[in-house]
Specification:
mainly beta, 4-stranded antiparallel beta sheet, 3 helices, 324 residues, WD40_rpt
Length: 324
């Protein structure tokens, strides 16, 4: 009997379901930020979370214990976007001070800048792809200080690598363009339409298995596409974001759900298979939160004026566990 109960609990802990999503609530919140959280990233294997904030701080958290391990201030350069490299205590971040738009590689261990590189890490190697307001997409290698490739586009680009590092996508002007990393200079090998949505691209991401792509746009649309055929599977609508905000969305680790912020600060979850909304949480915030799933965990994190760790409420899941 005890063994059967343990098996049921293991099954619940591994499977992300609608019931689990609907039970999720804030388990821990950090309210000591003096500005909005602008970016955050989970390390793929170490259990660390890093955040960037408008108060010019970079903070490192241990996810398992929900504790802040270190705070590093970037008063001189400011900080906007932040991402882990393959090393759990090394990050890259973009400046935000109006006069220096460089990107920096920072060792969190000893608070030293290593060299200038770019953002958007490919998890399988040391390569990066970045999109800029000057309508360029740059390809970088962490081991070299100069960019390894450049693409000029006709709009503000959103760019992302797939998990294997073989393909990267660039979204702008109502389309997602797919590039082979080894032959990008020949142009896109495929172009996917967003069904007439030509508003500004915000965030583009691949699911962990590479089979899906999501794209958010400034008018409040979250598009989900098949990454091989380019088929538009679903479009979800939230309140549009202001011109200086970014609408962020993310796949769950298993790719079965999409979670997104909204221009009114709310959070929504949809099923990829059915396209239906399965959970939502309203907010008193006036800006969309930064939002990320924790790799391999039944937990997501939102960042706005505070950092919140969302976990299942086990008391709400008692009946569900009994059914399993």
């Amino acid at each position: 009997m005890a063994g059967g109960q343990s098996e049921r609990e293991d099954k619940v802990s591994l499977e992300l379901t609608e019931e689990i999503l609907q039970s999720m609530e804030v388990g821990m919140a950090f309210r000591d930020y003096n500005g909005r959280i602008s970016s955050m990233d989970f390390h793929k294997t170490s259990g660390y979370l890093v955040t960037a904030s408008d108060d010019e701080s970079i903070r490192l958290y241990d996810v398992a214990s929900a504790t802040c391990l270190k705070t590093i201030n970037s008063k001189k350069y400011g900080v906007d976007l932040v991402s882990f490299t393959s090393h759990p205590t090394t990050v890259i971040y973009s400046s935000k001070n109006g006069w220096d738009e460089s990107l920096r590689l920072l060792s969190l261990h000893d608070n030293k800048y290593l060299r200038v590189v770019s953002l958007s890490l490919c998890s399988r190697n040391d390569c990066f792809v970045s999109g800029s307001l000057d309508r360029t997409v740059l390809l970088w290698d962490q081991r070299a200080e100069k960019c390894q490739g450049l693409l000029r586009v006709q709009g503000r680009p959103a760019a992302a690598y797939d998990d294997q590092g073989l393909v990267f996508s660039v979204a702008f002007g109502g389309y997602i363009r797919m590039f082979d990393t080894r032959k990008y200079e020949k142009g896109p090998f495929d172009i996917f339409s967003l069904g007439g949505d030509v508003s500004e691209a915000n965030v583009v991401k691949f699911s962990n298995d590479g089979g899906l792509i999501l794209l958010t746009t400034s008018n409040g649309h979250i598009h989900v596409l098949d990454s091989f055929r380019g088929t538009l599977l679903s479009t979800h609508n939230v309140k549009p974001v202001s011109s200086n905000s970014t609408l962020e969305a993310s796949f769950s680790p298993d790719g079965t759900f999409v979670i997104s912020g909204s221009g009114d600060g709310s959070v929504y979850v949809w099923s990829v298979r059915s396209g239906k909304e399965v959970a939502s949480w309203m907010s008193t915030e006036a800006e969309p939160p930064v939002i990320k799933w924790a790799p391999g965990n039944l937990m997501f994190v939102t960042g706005s004026s505070e950092l919140s760790f969302w976990i299942p409420d086990l008391s709400k899941l008692a009946a569900y566990v009994g059914r399993k």
